[in-house]
Amino acid sequence: MAPPWRIRRLRLPTRPSVRVRPHRSPGSSCPRTPEHNVTEIPALDVQELYKVFGRRPSEGVAALKKGTTRDKISGTAAVIDASFTVNPGEIFVVMGLSGSGKSTLIRTLNGLLEPTEGTIKVFGEPITGLDGKKLRDVRRRRISMVFQHFALFPHRTVLENAAYGLEVQGVGATERHERARKVLGRVGLDGWADSLPSELSGGMQQRVGLARALAADTDILLMDEAFSALDPLIRREMQEQLVELQRELGKTIVFITHDLNEAMFLGDRIAVMRDGRIAQLGTAEEILTDPADDYIAQFVQDVDRARVLTAANVMDAPRALVGRSAGPRVALRTMRDLHTSMVYVVGDGRRLEGVVHDRDVLRLVRRGDRTLDAALRTDAPRVHPDVVIADLLESSVETDLPLAVVDDAGRLLGAIPRVTLLAALGNVPNTTGELPVVEPPATISMEIITQTLHDSMEPTSAPESDAASERSLA
Ligand SMILES: Nc1ncnc2c1ncn2[C@@H]1O[C@H](COP(=O)(O)OP(=O)(O)OP(=O)(O)O)[C@@H](O)[C@H]1O
């Protein structure tokens, strides 16, 4: 059964802007959602793609379409009915265990393999069915490839290796060396231009591979297990650098990996492949919180949720809040009704102005204050919606208050009580009953609050306007 925090997340306006984590910083592992302009031509558009190896591949496809299972057809069905689009500027990860069809899929994308059936368009141009010369032309202009084992020329210098793609494109020596030198600087290889690959560590060699792909200045980079041969620390460094470079250069990247954590770290969206089929396609959060089937659920159970889920993913709708124009009585009544000791105070457009606590507000009501000004505290802990929950733990233990999730414009999007944070980490429900938790719990008894509200009623004066309060919450 889906944990309640997941259901809540899906109801909320979880993502404040379309490209959610454009400022993912090195060390943070926020997966991002791509900026998706529906009118934009996809960088890659793959429809009903099949690749069957064997003697009569078309017959294999026909049998698969009729419902014959993969193990019953003659030949090997490496890719079965794959349909997806990759948006420009997106990091699209294809993830799956060995033999699931990832490499075959990527090889059909760059034209190294002809699909048995289906279509592939690169920025709207079909590449399926093209003759060799046209296909090579599209590939040269549009697509570069980075391989797991670097594929560097051992007797060429780092600079010549980095310039190789440009050489193939027919760019003159001076220009290609100049461009390659710039890109080498970008990937942190300043000063290594004249070295041979053998003088470089594995991580540095892969930087050369990356530089070569970047120097070619194609729109799309296909990366096949590009970091799999690297030591874990270097690998992490490369992942972070790839995200940085992608952000700077806006390349479209299709990244193949069998490593789920790498997929979750890099992918704006992830296609999980199993036995030739795409078993699920979605953001890291979607796959983690809403796995399509038991296979995927098992697959993701060891993922470090704290480094994938963000404040926006786990926050509760902020229930305990009042508008700035509400007075102490409205605030106290809200706290009484929700059994909590604190409410958020928001101004126009739901901008968070601060919090008030029950004891302070009770005093204001007894004193007959008409505004919340004297009780307003502005030191409530605030977090950005894109912060991963691993980075929320410290803030959460330092305070008894829920963390207020506030966007760049200062708007209150949600609240994260500690219980919600812990429940999200453990992937368990945060409530055992019907009532949602609103933290922190009340510190004054209901009777005292009700009595105070009753005693403070002034039949002759206009009651504080709930309507005015609601208007400012809208
Ligand atoms: N040229 C080929 N001829 C016949 N079968 C092939 C060929 N290439 C791949 N296959 C088969 O297609 C299936 C998918 O292989 P593929 O290499 O695409 O998977 P993968 O997910 O990339 O695996 P790995 O991570 O081990 O490379 C496998 O069963 C494989 O044996």
UniProtKB/TrEMBL annotation:
PANTHER family referenced in this protein's UniProt entry, alphabetically: GLYCINE BETAINE/PROLINE BETAINE TRANSPORT SYSTEM ATP-BINDING PROTEIN PROV (PTHR43869), GLYCINE BETAINE_PROLINE BETAINE TRANSPORT SYSTEM ATP-BINDING PROTEIN PROV (PTHR43869:SF1)
Keyword Nucleotide-binding part of the UniProt annotation: yes
CDD domains tied to this protein: ABC_Pro_Gly_Betaine (cd03294)
Annotated CBS domain residues: 315-372
Single GO MF annotation: ATP binding
Domain (ABC transporter) ranges: 44-300
NCBIfam families: proV (TIGR01186)
Protein name in UniProt: Glycine betaine/L-proline ABC transporter ATP-binding protein
Domain of life: Bacteria
Pfam families, alphabetized: ABC_tran, CBS
Alphabetically ordered keywords of this record: Amino-acid transport, ATP-binding, CBS domain, Nucleotide-binding, Transport
GO CC terms of this entry: membrane
